[in-house]
Amino acid sequence: MSAPDSPAHFHALLQLRGRTAAWPAAAAAAAGLGRIVQAEEYLSQAQWTVLKSAECCHATHSLLHRNLGLLYMAKENYEEARYHLANDIYFASCAFGTEHIRTSGGYFYLANIFYGLKNLDLADTLYTKVSEIWNKYLNNHYQVLSQARTQQVDLLGKQFETDTGLDEAQEAEAIQILTSILKIRESTSDKAPQKTIFVLKILFMLYYLMVNSSKAKEYAMRALDLAKEQQLSVHEQNTIQDLLNLTSAEEAHPITW
């Protein structure tokens, strides 16, 4: 399959543009290629299609408004961007729930706007919310896998491959969102090291579930180094050390599933 921002992917989406949900996707691909004018054209078509259709689901409305929000962010029209991202969050909440990972993207992009406008308190609140949503989601999967590791369960007799519950595009989005938040948290690590460690531990879980032990270990090591540097509690340091021990055990005896 073509990369999401590749010309081949973009042209493939154009062939699907008669379908309602394909217009926002085509617009996103166009924007990814720097074709802002084309993205705006496709989103105008999407809006028209959605308005005339009584059958568009909340998820499609969410997708439309998210891409409109991103378009206006690219055009530096932040008032319009905030309007559309607020609608994205509303429709995503109706479709999936307010604490769902599908809704978290709207919070994240809205946080980016407030961060750029130097409204740091509101941005911080939204970044925290996004982090907590991803932490809850990944921790549920992580606990299942950790239990399997402890019990050495091998029901199917084949090597475990992945258990994020996400498709490739969702995993890429998770990495993009969480690493972006991490960069912001690291800029204030001296003031709030726990927030940085929280995101590092979420990234550890993500890569551990993706069966990328080297990246998982990297984030756990960074978390442990920061905990020691900031002289955080022994309990916190031991918790992070347990994560490192888990990756070492995984490398020595890969889990089967």
- Taken as a percent bin, the fraction of beta residues is under 5%
Major sheet summary line: none
| Distance between the amino and carboxyl termini | 27 Å
Poorly predicted regions are 1-27, 153-161
Question: How much helix, percentage-wise, in residues?
Answer: over 70%
Q: What general outline do the C-alpha atoms trace? A: globular
Q: Cα-atom Rg, whole angstroms?
A: 20 Å
Structural class: mainly alpha
Helical element count?
11
Total number of beta strands: 0
Keywords:
TPR-like_helical_dom_sf, disordered N terminus, Zinc_finger_MYND_domain, mainly alpha, Zinc finger MYND domain-containing protein 12 isoform X2
Description:
The structure is a single chain. The chain is mostly helical and 257 residues long. It is 75% helix and 0% strand. It has a domain at 128-152 and 166-252. The chain is built from 11 helices and no strands. Helix 6 (101-116) runs antiparallel to helix 7 and helix 9 (193-209) packs antiparallel against helix 10. The longest helix has 32 residues, at 120-151. The chain is globular, with a radius of gyration of 20 Å.
Could you outline the blueprint of secondary structure elements for this entry?
Elements: H1 7-14, H2 22-32, H3 36-52, H4 58-74, H5 78-96, H6 101-116, H7 120-151, H8 168-186, H9 193-209, H10 213-229, H11 234-252
Helix pairs in contact: 1-2, 2-3, 2-4, 3-4, 4-5, 4-6, 5-6, 6-7, 7-9, 8-9, 9-10, 10-11
